[in-house]
Input
Amino acid sequence: MIKKPSISSIMLALVPFVGMCFSVPLWDRVTPRVLGLPFNMFWLLVWLALTPVLMSILYRIEKRR
Amino acid sequence: MSPGTLALSIIFGIVAVGSCIGFLAANRGQVNLEEWAVAGRGLGLILVWILLAGETFTTFSVLGVSGWIYSKGGPTLYVLVYLALGQMLVFFTGPAIWELGRKFGLQTIGDFFARRYGGRLLAATVALAGVVFLIVYLQLQLTGLGIIVEVASFERIGRTPAMVVSTAVVACFVLSSGVRGVVWVSVLKDFLLVAVAVIVGVGLPYIHFGGIGPMFTALIKAKPGYLTMPGGTANLTHSWFISTILVNSLFISWPHFFGSIFTAKDGDTVRRNSVIMPLYLMPLALIIFAGCAAILISPGLANGDLALLTAVRTTFPPWLLGVIGGAGALTAMVPAAIQILTASTLIAKNVYRPFVAPDMSDERIAGVARVAVGVITVIALYLSLNSSTTLVGLLILAYSGIAQFTPGIVLGLYSERVTRNGILSGLIAGLAVAGYLTFTHRDPFLGLNAGFIGLMANIVVLAAVSSLTVREPNGFDA
Output
């Protein structure tokens, strides 16, 4: 039997799903413009940069188990 | 030299260099199925990254994404999200899939189902459905390639000869070098493609509007509401966005992606790959910027897939168009190669051998796979020469289909209670629902992606049938 991921890892893995997917009605607008970008594009680019950071934390947690 | 000839020579040069790399990459010492299909399970972090990036960043990413933002606006943002979120599933299941692959000698997604659940009908169903969807994806690559070469050569090469010649080249290097050839062509392709993304994503807005910010200001003024959902569409709403992302983020079930997991040298390599992969999506954002610029630079095109190249052609000198055309051609050829290779291995190992020749050796199966390369290439080429659907439309259908494999993979790893007939009936129910909704033009249905509704049906049926059938041994326990 394959070892299942821990509950805390799964919770952490769900964070980008909330940030980029489920919360879409909250950030899908053009204003305020940030760095010249429409807000929705700026928001997603920030999350694209954050996701690898979150995943490397996840990597450390899973490696210790 | 006329602009057409110059662009044409550069396209030809890049494709020729790429093809030579493909032929030279073969590991001449070993020509067995293990080497051909999974590179002897020996690729390190960088090469696996390049392979997975190579199959993720396709002609769809260039022409389809810019075409969608051109004709549909805001809903296009889903592509940035699902490619990042799907890495979570790879992170958790990838290392386990790799370990099982080494332990049981798995090379394909069909092998995984055959080993876990036993029997041959389930694995063959997965393999055959997988081949159908791979051919759809392949058709998209070839159509995109035809468009790129035609426009970039100033119509000096027609779509049909471009597609026929490059597909033949792809089939040849797949035959001679297997997956290792694909990896090394992908090195050149990735380098060129990132350069092209920067040139078009930054260059088009700066040349025409003085910057990315002013470009968006002009676009928002000209087309208010276009950059949010539903943008230029009637029904691609937030619920569509969420359900499409959930379905598409199951891309681990793409047979060519699944098979690529086995090329890594260990499970940790697969996991570390998933951590860095979201960074590779930044160039995709640049392609979206370029598509936005094209809305204002080249308005009124009926086929959005042509938008980016048309804007590029009116803006940049012919030599640069040639570089973009060559990079675009390789961007089609790399995924096409891995898709042809995967589809042929599936046919040979998971359909032909179990039903026609159970006693056949791996060596002779490798021969069957090579024959299948020819057959699949011809079918995909025929379909792409005789089809008119836009690129993204085709791909959404295929993603809805392959998502139906995911319950069998994930529950196969973590659940002891699912049974072979449960998974098989769920799969058939999911494919039937998703296919019916798509073909009767009811996608999205009630605001939800057809593949998502198929997946709901899939899970309900598999749970019901599994609970009614007796517990079966888990093939991974042996």
User: Anything to note?
Assistant: DSSP finds three helices and no strands in chain A. The mean pLDDT of chain A is 92.
